[in-house]
Specification:
Helices cover 45% and strands 18% of the residues. With 327 residues, it is α/β, with parallel strands linked by helices.
Length: 327
């Protein structure tokens, strides 16, 4: 009996010691520089967001935040790299929403299961509106006229997007489905080239972010409507597409993900410091300058629900339009 009690006491002491060690280890996170792998080239919105956040979060964490660009395969390369890294919270990936909620439906073969191999750390930015614009040569002045014109013009108008599976494409395909119109998709390698194509008249229409405001104000593009649930403060006169087609809405987000298996203590610390940084007015100002982005703060549960809702919504849309990307 004495030996049994002695063994129990030893095991209890060992358990308490181990628990204390793990708690201390988690509390000390991070213990080295945090690597922020970005899914796009320098200058893209996720890259800008990463660098702005890195500047603010680094002193809060007490460690450098190192931004590393790993563009390619619409984010799949960077996401796979991070998913297969050590799950200690020191290697993270910054993604645009399409990479998480559209890629799995578009690509014939994904290198990872994004919903199992990655876990959301925190959303960081969102874009409330895309702007539907046409080249000035298109003989329409309003959104209603655009819909009527596209129904009768032959051959169909062409529109540009930031690439196969991009939110630009999804915005137009959703509109085509709801309005019963036809347009030809011309994918480009990024939002900037897609907008340039519309400016040059290579295509007749495009969806773009707030970064196209100067061209719209200069009359180089004619804005017709916006995709969000509220009118744009930049162009309050533009109607929401949802005013004509109830339920139509497209907003986008940028978020940070980690490999599955990262300790909850590390995730909690990251979320806390990221939210502190997002609350800084300078961050909101710099986000806005990067194409009309806004800080995106929400709870982990609400963000998980948003991911699942978007994943299901775009899965149905991709199936409807039959869009696929061969690996």
């Amino acid at each position: 009996m004495r030996n049994s009690r002695r063994i129990e006491a030893v095991l209890l002491a060992a358990s308490l010691a181990l628990g204390g060690f793990l708690t201390t280890a988690h509390a000390q996170y991070p213990t080295k520089p945090v690597r922020l792998v970005v899914t796009v080239s320098p200058g893209g919105a996720p890259d800008t967001v990463s660098r702005v956040l890195g500047d603010k979060v680094s002193p809060l964490l007490g460690q450098p935040v190192v931004v590393e660009n790993r563009a390619g395969s619409n984010g799949n390369i960077a996401m796979e790299l991070v998913a297969r890294s050590e799950p200690d919270g020191h290697t993270l990936v910054v993604v645009a929403d399409s990479m998480i909620v559209i890629n799995p439906h578009m690509y014939a073969k994904m290198p990872i299961d994004v919903l199992k191999d990655l876990v959301p750390v925190s959303p960081v930015a969102q874009q409330s509106n895309f702007i539907l614009s046409v080249h000035p040569s298109v003989p329409v002045k309003t959104f209603q006229q655009f819909i009527e014109y596209t129904k009768k013009v032959n051959p169909p108008l062409a529109y540009s997007s930031a690439g196969n599976g991009s939110q630009h494409q999804m915005a137009m395909e959703m509109l085509k489905s709801r309005a019963g119109i036809k347009l030809v998709h011309v994918p480009y390698k990024g939002g900037a080239p897609a907008t340039k194509a519309a400016l040059a008249g290579e295509v007749s229409a495009t969806f773009s972010g707030a970064s196209s405001a100067p061209q719209i104000q200069a009359g180089k593009l004619r804005a017709l409507a916006v995709t969000g649930r509220q009118r744009s403060p930049l162009f309050p006169e533009l109607p929401m597409i949802g005013e004509f087609y109830p339920g139509y809405e497209l907003t986008t987000w940028i978020a940070i993900f980690a490999p599955a298996g990262v300790p909850e203590a590390a995730l909690s610390r990251l979320r806390a410091e990221i939210n502190k940084a997002l609350a800084v007015p300078e961050v909101a100002k710099r986000f806005n300058a990067a194409g009309g982005l806004e800080p995106f703060i929400t709870t982990p549960q609400q963000f998980s629900e948003r991911i699942r809702a978007d994943y299901d919504k775009y899965g149905k849309l991709v199936k409807l339009i039959g869009a696929k990307v061969d690996n």
